[in-house]
């Protein structure tokens, strides 16, 4: 890891340095003040020994009460400030994680489960909040308590102080020897929690599939297994904590007992004043609480450390496709829509052969070109290469003569609207789904896009028309309706180039052909790449490119290709046969 955990933590705290310093400063003040009260009490004991008077007691009580109130107020202020820092870091981290996740490509989300990522963004961030709130407060408090109390104790009696503190190295050793086990067990808990979240997330998304295959009981078992693993991990951690913490508390109290025994003898021998003894006892008491808390502090710290690693792992993932330095801008109204490929090749990481190889073509502005070919021939790969959803090399693909790798991603993706087969819709009004790419679009524009996508008629039949909620909280659209809504969404941004990656597969041939006709008419004609298995819709396109094993093997109009022996003729004949048989 490039930086140490401590450096990461410092980085998280940097923006809130001032508040942190104020909080720690308040703690410092309170610890300095806390040395006084035992001194005052010791003094009171000595005075009262000489001459008992109500007035003296009252004066001491008022003084101690006043001091205690001030200390309480400062301690409160320090807690508000330090816990506030924890909360602010939590906010910053959540924000950073979300922004970073948005910058990553879908391949990252295929490798990392959503449940795990959600867990990191919530539970792990929460651990860091506790580390930077509670643990920092508690560590600083312990440190200050020792720094100011121990010298004050030494001034009273070196021997008794050493006697009282003899237990503390044992405590430190104990904490040290448990710390690795605690950290590992904490990691196991976080991992088990992530596994469980992943299963919940996947099962809820795939609930339809579970029902179709009647796999409820298997999924229940899988859940029980992971839930048990989480329970075991939590119990193991609790066992360790329950062994360590009471041990620490017990040892801290033991130091009080030792000093009582040894101190009483010194008083009897006349080498220690009663007042000093009382002060010393109160000092030891001051140390007991922070020391007994050390166990919690250490767990909070280790829990936080584990979470720092898990969160930083997200930040180390970098987007593969990014703007080159000095990338050129290409305003959409300057794009005519000419696409040219020269030796375009792409090989998926970890595979032995390129999915597309040495592709060359030129698409003129306004042309509608179908891309057909057997399954797995590389059509989707080519489609994804165009708006650089896949990382392609420079010098292989040009938009209006500009190398796409040199154009800013924002402009390139604004110029090339990509519509995939799986049309994802958000759980919101259909109107908002349509204007997703242009949130400020007005109704006439939205309706225009819906008409072009041939979905307007159906929307008007929905209960609340364009205001109808779709998805989880609303109505369920059919596959074809979803695809046409997704197409309407792409048409609304009015990109000069449109890539339809099997995006009309659930739409009947006639409607698909009508949609393509809509797109190729008028002054706002688009360059359309229509990837499809629907041969009759492809046949109506200006031109057809036929792919096989990652290469374009034939190009031409339907009429020219269908008469030539070759893959296209074969695909067309298969399609005709299917039509006859249906
Ligand atoms: N993410 C990936 N990692 C590795 N190989 C992949 C990946 N995506 C696709 N491939 C492989 O690349 C080849 C081309 O796939 P592609 O999806 O481009 O074909 P296609 O022509 O669009 O197929 P279909 O008609 O079924 O949609 C296939 O062999 C496929 O297995």
Automatic annotation (TrEMBL):
It is found in: Cell membrane. Residues 22-303 form the ABC transmembrane type-1 domain. One of its GO terms (molecular function) is ATP binding. Keywords: ATP-binding, Membrane, Nucleotide-binding, Transmembrane, Transmembrane helix. It is a multi-pass membrane protein. The keyword Nucleotide-binding applies. The chain crosses the membrane at residues 20-41, 57-74, 131-150, 156-175, 244-268, 280-301. Pfam families: ABC_membrane, ABC_tran. Its main location: membrane. It comes from the Bacteria. InterPro entries: AAA+_ATPase (IPR003593), ABC1_TM_dom (IPR011527), ABC1_TM_sf (IPR036640), ABC_transporter-like_ATP-bd (IPR003439), P-loop_NTPase (IPR027417), Type_1_exporter (IPR039421). This is ABC transporter ATP-binding protein. Residues 339-574 form the ABC transporter domain. SMART domains: AAA (SM00382).
